[in-house]
Amino acid sequence: GILIQERNGNLALVHQGDEVWTSSISEEEGSYTTTLQGDGNLLTMDANNNVVWASDSHSDIHTDYFLCLTSNKDELEVFRGTPENPFAKVWSSIDGPITGPPPPYNSPVTNADFSMTNSDHTVGVYYYPWYGNTDFNGRNYAREKINPPQLPSLGEYDQREPEVISEHLKMSRMANVNLWVTSWWGPGSATDRNTKAILENRDLPGMKIALFYETSGTIPNFSYVDNVKDHLAYAADNYFGSEHYLKINGRPVFFVYLARVLSQNGRLEAAVKEMREGARTRGYEIYIVGDSAFYKPPRGDYQAFELLDAVTNYDVYGSLGRPEYAGKQLIDQERDRQEGWRQAARKQGCDFIPAAEPGYNDNGVRNNNHQPMSRKLCRNCGFGSLFRELVQNAVEQCDFETGNMLMVTSFNEWHEDTQIEPVQGEGTTVNPNQITRGVDYQAYGTQYLDILREVTDRTSTTTARRHH
């Protein structure tokens, strides 16, 4: 077979003088069209004209699709995955679109378990295991202080109780969540004790755990890294060897809170050096994720990309500029900024993990007069519309190299009202104003678990990455 370019830019496969295939196929749902561009590059596009593969290696056309000619040179095929690790054939020049149930997902997450969710994504949530007393850590959270209160559906729980963890695991699986990134304040802390208990919970299999290193408490003034090496050696001894601990290409994954502040203080390099050395004393090469992808992407080389293995954005509220209602225009701008972070990171060999958040209100715990961010995209939009938009954007910015990972802030950070954990009660309230600042609060039940499941379901996400 000979592959030639027709005058209209389409490709034709010619065998013994007869055209046996052309790339100009009908654009039915699920079909793919391949064309040769004026610059000499091949482009494969779906029925909606989204580029899903390109023959060049330019960073702004990066997807988890590739095109190849079969060994006997009589068929073109498009695969999902990478040439070294193909996942599924989605189209061929002979058979057209490949339909049917997807095969088992071959993820770079070495120990990934997708058996208990209906998603090809690693859907992560920041999980806070610090609720361990009868007054729910001082009851300093907005949902308790509004009138009437909107408490957790489990009540003000104690995470030292195995039944609480089991219920949270059930809730998480309802939402396709298969990763908990657990807040960790170092050896001997309450979060340390409770995270160890999570690893021993009988209902944990199928869920992965990774530590979220709380630098505001473990690195004093975001400057003094003297304890970091010992902390990582401890983490290696107590967590990294667990079958439930998240690993990417065999490397334990370690999330670092406020890595961007360490960068601003000129201490990220020293901190990362201590982290890696601490893990190496126990025989581990770790995969470090820092929340550096905040607001505008950098221009030119950026040191954090050289030091970290991946970047993400924990504080979506701050990155949006702390709005009352984010609005579609601002969300689109944030999507483009995050895409800028993604492309800049990839140019320097660093991975990117997109993020989403349902809303924000820290007026129950801090006296700083912050404007709450509504869970509605606009004043007249429905509750949950902001979260749905952010999760949809995150799904489109996932990458194969991280196991199509996205992160949600948070499962249960009640103090900042970023939780997706279900609440009790019904109805809405705007009282009292010193807490709500006029933003209405809904007793949302399981709504945010439902949204996360709907958007990340395998039936809803046919690709891990589409170029816009």
TrEMBL record:
* Cross-referenced PROSITE patterns: BULB_LECTIN (PS50927)
| Gene3D superfamilies associated with the record | Bulb-type lectin domain, Glycosidases
Pfam families noted in UniProt: Glyco_hydro_99
Which InterPro entries does the record cross-reference, listed alphabetically? Bulb-type_lectin_dom, Bulb-type_lectin_dom_sf, Glyco_Hydrolase_99
Top-level taxon of the source organism? Eukaryota
Chief localization: Golgi
Alphabetic keyword roster: Golgi apparatus, Hydrolase, Membrane, Signal-anchor, Transmembrane, Transmembrane helix
Positions of the Bulb-type lectin domain: 1-57
- PANTHER family in the record, alphabetically? ENDO-ALPHA-1,2-MANNOSIDASE, RE57134P
> What family does the Swiss-Prot or TrEMBL record give for this protein?
Belongs to the glycosyl hydrolase 99 family.
In Swiss-Prot or TrEMBL terms, this protein is called Bulb-type lectin domain-containing protein
Q: Which organism is it from?
A: Asterionellopsis glacialis
